Amino acid sequence: MNEKVYTLVFKNIEIGYIREDVDGDLVFEYSDAFKSSKMRALPHFPNVNKKYKKSSVLNFLLNRIPSKAFKSQKFTSASELIGFGRKVGHSPIELVG
Predict the structure, then answer these.
(1) Is residue 32 very low, low, confident or very high in pLDDT (cuts 50, 70, 90)?
(2) Are the CB atoms for 41 and 70 separated by under 8 Å?
(3) What is the mean pLDDT of residues 69-88?
């Protein structure tokens, strides 16, 4: 099974990547382009040089999902959260992949 990779994008700038490894664990890390930019780090991921795992990534995705989705959908895996967190009306950040 191949690792799945999703890209966080803000105004055509790649912020970083969320990877789902073969065990289903999610990992976020900033892109090199973002690290060399003057942009501020995301609140959920304050250190641009750190790899964030599981709970930090899950919290980020959960905050992107509209509450209606929780009422109508039963989530059984972390990867299912990604589909609901791709583009959120209140957030300028897109999740592509």
Answers:
(1) very high
(2) no
(3) 60
